[in-house]
Automatic annotation (TrEMBL):
Alphabetized GO MF terms: exonuclease activity
Protein name, per record: Exonuclease domain-containing protein
TM annotation in the entry: 7-31
Keyword annotations from UniProtKB, A to Z: Exonuclease, Hydrolase, Membrane, Nuclease, Transmembrane, Transmembrane helix
Native species: Aeromicrobium wangtongii
InterPro entries, per database record: Ribonucl_H (IPR013520), RNaseH-like_sf (IPR012337), RNaseH_sf (IPR036397)
Pfam families attached to this UniProt entry: RNase_T
Domain Exonuclease, first and last residues per copy: 55-226
Amino acid sequence: MRTNKYAGLCADCGVIVAIAAGWLIGLPGAWRTICPGCQPKPPARADHPGWHEVPLASLDFETTGVDPLTDRVLSFALLDDRGHDYTGLIDPGVEIPPGSVAVHGLTAESLRGAPAPAEALVEVIAWVQDLIDRGVGLVVFNAAYDLTMLRAEADRWGLGQPDWHRLLVVDPFVIDWGIERGALGPRRLTDVAAYYSVTLDNAHDAGADARAAREIAYEIGRRQPTIAAGTLDDLMGWQRYWFAERAEDWNRYAATAGRSLDDPQGWPLARTTVTAARTA
Ligand SMILES: [Zn+2]
């Protein structure tokens, strides 16, 4: 959740909330301010079986920008299900916009001498294919962005694609929307991590983001028995459904606000003709 930019009254209890003393919740175009005492909290952890009890892998990229079809991967973190973490840098061979450097701190100079995209990404793709072959679930926060970019990079550099249709994705961004229906305001990785009391000290470091995303997935499983109860195959279907609902919800607002529309069919990979998610 995000702190309130303006002073106002708590939408729940009516108390006066000073600037940045409370939180902003609500749907796009209809934010509401709430006081810390009325701040929504997730359900407590409980002991029930589910997919969260099986180790998951996790992936995150830092990139040159927000368009998965044209932007490039600069760093990657691959956390496997057996306790091995692989991280790496890529020299993209293109300019890195200052706005992106400001997010993650990766400059062209700092990446000089790192492997070229094709060399590094062929390993990333092999790692994803190994998860697919072993039926291991892969956590990706806002998968429609990272996975669409990986597919575009593979095309760009003439690398083979993994068997995307068999990949089991666990996307805490989408699951969180399915639970909260967007009612808690902006829900980027830092927002959702704070909500679930998951530590994220070094946001926009690929390794830190991948660890936090996986921890959020486990916390959702521990606290949401009905969502934990399905198989990862069931969860794939539910996430497609939630993503479509979220896109339709966004599009109703976007159409009136003159913003760009999302593709309801764009999870976990965007259809190539459509520009994917805005939320990196
Ligand atoms: Zn209140």
